Amino acid sequence: MSQMKYRILFVCLGNICRSPAAQGVMETLVSERGVSDLFQIDSAGLYGGHAGDLPDPRMRAHARMRGLNLTHRSRQVRSSDFDDFDIIVAMDDSNFDRLKALAPTPVDERKVVKMADYFTMHPYADCVPDPYYDGAQGFENALDLIEDGCRNLLQKSLSSLSNSTK
Prior knowledge:
Elements: E1 6-12, H1 18-33, E2 39-45, H2 57-64, H3 81-84, E3 87-90, H4 93-102, H5 106-109, E4 112-114, H6 136-164
Parallel strand pairs: 1-2, 1-3, 3-4
Helix pairs in contact: 1-6, 2-6
């Protein structure tokens, strides 16, 4: 971990629904805990067709109802992300598999994890489903899962930071 910051990248397919929501949730959580200076948080997509776009208006609307303001501009995953981040969090199995295949080294491959690995309130969920083609409930479900995963990821990240300073 560089300069004692824990660097987290959230990744989904287009970087317009799930990963910018995860970025917004995590940024809010670290701010509420007063540990923003310990984290660098970003999001990206495996598909570059939405590059420069704000998150999907439906995701922004559902996020706003939870007090989140999603302003991230979509970008595609870059090879340098494997150098720039300590952990790369995939929203589903397809994202996970593609990220593992893109990893330039075995060390980089180990940086790729699944958001579902951090679920505690939703033990039977195995991914954050893409809400893009779902109705309102799909966006709410995605946000519920993301909030659950991010809370637990934050706890584990703070433990890692604490252990690295000992």
